[in-house]
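Worked example

This section walks through a single chain of length 994. The input is the sequence exactly as stored; nothing has been trimmed or padded.
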Amino acid sequence: MSIQVDGVAWAAHEGEPLLEVINRAQIELAQVCYHPQLGPVQTCDTCAVEIDGALGRACGTPVRAGMVVRTQTQAARTAQRDAYDRLVANHDLYCTVCDNNNGNCTVHNTLTLLAPQHQTRPFRPKGYPRDDSNPFYRYDPDQCILCGRCVEACQNVQVQETLSINWEAEQPRVLWDGGRAINDSSCVSCGHCVTVCPCNALMENTMLGEAGLFTGIPLPVWNAAVDVVKGVEASTGLQAITAISEIEAAGRERLIQKTKTVCTYCGVGCAFEVWTKGRQILKVEPGQGPANGISTCVKGKFGWDYVNSPERLTTPLIREATGFREASWDEALDLIASRLEGLRAAHGPDALAFVASSKSTNEDIFLVQKFARQVIGTNNVDNCSRYCQSPATKGLSQTVGIGGDSGTIHDIEQASLVLIVGSNTAESHPVLATRVKRAQKLGRTRVIVADLREHEMARRADQFLRPRPGTDFVWISAVCKFILDHGLEDRAFLETRVSGLDEYRESLAGYTLEFAAQETGLRAATLEALAHQIAAEERVCILWAMGVTQQCGGSDTSAALSNLLLLTGNYGRTGTGAYPLRGHNNVQGAGDMGAMPDQVSGYQKTTDPLTVQRHEREWGVTLRPERGLDNTQLTDAALAGTLKGLWITGEEMSLTDANVNHLARGFEALDFLVVQDLYFTNTARYADVVLPAAASLEKEGTFTSTERRIQRLYRVMPPLKGTRADWEIYQAVAQRLGANWNYTHPADIMAEIARLTPFYAGVTYERLAGHGSLCWPVAENGTDTPLLYTERFHFPDGRARLHPATYKPRASAPNAEYDLHLNSGRLLEHFHEGNMTFQVPGLAGKVPDTFVEVSPELAAERGLQSGQWVRLVSPHGAVRVRALVTSRVQAHELYLPMNARHAEAAVNRLTGSGGDSQTNTPAYKDTSVRLEVLPEVGDNPLPRGNPRWGHPTPQTGTEVTRKWARPDYVFPGGPQPLRGDSLNARADALGTDD
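Given that input, the structure is written out below as tokens.
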């Protein structure tokens, strides 16, 4: 439709916020509380305009046909300035010496836009103290304009539901858990509130006293400077003072560098700018990332201290009889080349193996596998997806042809039902979880969770299923059988797009609801209702992770989940599909780049003639067809004497592999071990040469997220002196071994990747510039594929394949000696084993060390309490940790986080060598232990500053109608618009795509 804005016709959509049309028209209009990713908050009134002759809020007014809008009438301008004047009565204007005066302060920029001569309402302190309790950010009530952006972000984007405003108080303020100190609340320090704050009320602690030309001056001088500025305002007017602050802000551009990067933690792929002053990190500023927008988690927003940790390696180390000594790069690289060449000459190329890092860039990883295959001549190369996601890749490859997410986070948001199986999404993939929580809260989707432990997503779920450990395959197959037996399947979809139905139906014969109930502990009626619901839903997405894949039948269960989607026609449409959530920032890229023993980049088999021909032309060697060793086979090969040398890049294998006591013996059996990492890790203790690597903030390159989204990262700061990027290290050794490698920049490597990899054919650094991204497959012309299978599945005939059902029960169920089942996984505050996050004081303060969760029933049975030390013993080893009694686990289930400050407490001292039969992925979740209660009792392992002790205050959002109901509220310049229209517009805006 068309509406008139300032005399010009503009295209518009019925029901959208009027302000969106005005912004598209590039008409300058004040909008302090409005944010495009929050929708209309309607607290500031600065966007007042004339709508069909009456004043109203542009943000809260839904568009309707024939509107006549005028933004610059005298009445509108008066109302805008009056609204702004009311805001700054809550805000002490001292822009010139403010740490937030960096060109992006909405309050400051609105002052410039509206150009009032004077502040007519004097600033009045609110009488509340500043809250400095949180280790990452602070709240200053006297600077808070009560716009409610932070509340809206917390309630309806992050959906942690910690923040609110007490509108009925004589002097309102933002509250955490209804009035607790920030660090005593449920705040998870995700940073959403700080990111959207339009002024300096919420600021990162790292910015304070650091960001401006004058912000580091002593407090008495600073206060005096503020008083001087305010003293001259009456005579000079606000604009003269504003001009001075803008000059100062411009000077900061030379002081502060802002560089786009991609997060180095989980696989969501959050992108943001990092603000630095030299090597000092001032803040992380999200906003334009295609996966995350304004969102971050505590690690992505605040967890970067590890980059400048004093524990960083800065020189190569070489082992001698008495220990390690420092060496030059040339000496270390010469030694590596000499030893690799010697071992190859004596024992053949398969005596060597290489492990790539899922935290490195695509370009780094590509060269690891190229080095193995071209320079050495072996397929002994792998990456950490072997420990987590290989079964999901296998199951999807068997059913739909591509072992990755079939859509993007946008599709998950658009689902009418999200089924989460074996994934602690809110802690392992926090930003992705916010999209699910938001869609659920706004009534767009239902959430069903199947898991052993009542984590956050389980607690929030519309339905929570607790099957017995290792039995997901059974209940999924029973649901599939019921759907087929009762004609609930999508027959048209199956007939036109899927093969293998008859064979699959036969394989389900034994998976009755009664058998499933007996095996899983779930009631038959529950599973029947679940089958009806899934079959009836219009759009279903299934999310899963290590709770599925780290089982004896991880590949089969992954295939079963895909079968369920195929039976119900939930592929190839927006809001549908399979989503095996990748754990590391570039574990998807590690697979994409061919760091696997039987495939090169793009999942091309080393036995495929076209692949062999393509690589022979590019590399000048013939790929060997034999499958190489994977990560789980390296130890036995070393102990057998067939593997002599190993080069590990950026993986803490000695803590993350299963049965690490067995692994240690394998390391000790090697003739030569190279470890390349940021720190002297536990794995480095076994090395012959240790190389200091560069961190992601010190690199250029690309990461590929769980969405198959390829994004570019830029160098935020130079590599720490003495460190090098992984690709540079491998190139230096390759050159010493006679390879003609002459890359000058990671872009050169990506060009080679594109030539060799059909999925990446159209990927270039130019197309990825800035916040650009591409979801593979990418055609040569740059066209990408965010949603797979819209027309064909990735098989020669274009049809998907139902994979026959085969149940592989767990092999290590509890018995008389080891009577408890041990589950393991991630915590929000830490990542993986904790090598990076324990270097961040704020994160370590939230969770100082690992612990074991014990149910109240088991605690009562064994007579233990939180903080009590216990010993967990399995057939493979033992650990000593403190107990945390919590209802998150039940009965004889235990949960031990995988992050541990000390190697002696690592969970993988307990896990065994069994694994998935198809991929060799360790069955970490198939572990039984006994628990010995020790006499010592320590502090509770979760400090009082941990958000799990908090009590959120859920509400619909900022709840602006409570502000409007205050007796002292009057709409600036005239009567306020219809509140019903305003609220409907806000609801519509929240329901649209961010």
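What to look for: The longest helix spans residues 329-347.
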